[in-house]
Amino acid sequence: MRRTNRQRRAYWPSCQRVTTKEQLVTAGRGFDIPPFKTMMDFKVWEDEGPPKGTNYNFPPRGDVVVNVVGYPAPVKIGTQMYAQSTICKMIALYARQGKSMDAAMDFAEAEIEGFMRT
Questions:
Q1: Three-state DSSP class for 12?
Q2: pLDDT-based confidence at 34, cuts 50/70/90?
Q3: Cis peptide before 34, with omega less than 30 degrees from 0?
Q4: Final residue of a structural domain among 65, 85, 109
Q5: If 0-12 CB within 10 Å is exposed, 13-18 middle and 19+ buried, where does residue 35 land?
Q6: What is the pTM of this model?
Q7: Each residue of 37-81: pLDDT tens digit?
Q8: Are residues 5 and 39 located together in one domain of the fold?
Q9: Radius of gyration of the chain from Cα atoms?
Q10: Are residues 17 and 60 in the same domain?
Q11: Is 29 exposed, middle or buried, given 0-12, 13-18 or 19+ CB atoms closer than 10 A?
Q12: How many CA atoms lie within 13 A of 17 on its CB side?
């Protein structure tokens, strides 16, 4: 069923309510949720977690710094940086392949310039 713009505008405020967000996070069992502080106190985090004995840092706890890949880039570029793993590739070039920091940053710069052309 396709929604009209009027229906979409009427539906959107209901998605912004905390109870609606919590229902969506709970339905997804906390998987792949953006790291927004407003979503870190939901009850799902008390029940969900990785297998015992593994590392666990989601939701962020203690001194963990929340980072969204591509921020503060415009959405069009940030989503491509996330989807193409630009930051991870840049780190791998430097840390695993032994490239210089400048070479790794040049790689990322070229990637981002490509995203700007598309």
A1: helix
A2: low
A3: no
A4: 65
A5: middle
A6: 0.50
A7: 777 777 877 776 666 666 565 666 677 777 777 888 888 898 899
A8: yes
A9: 19
A10: yes
A11: exposed
A12: 6
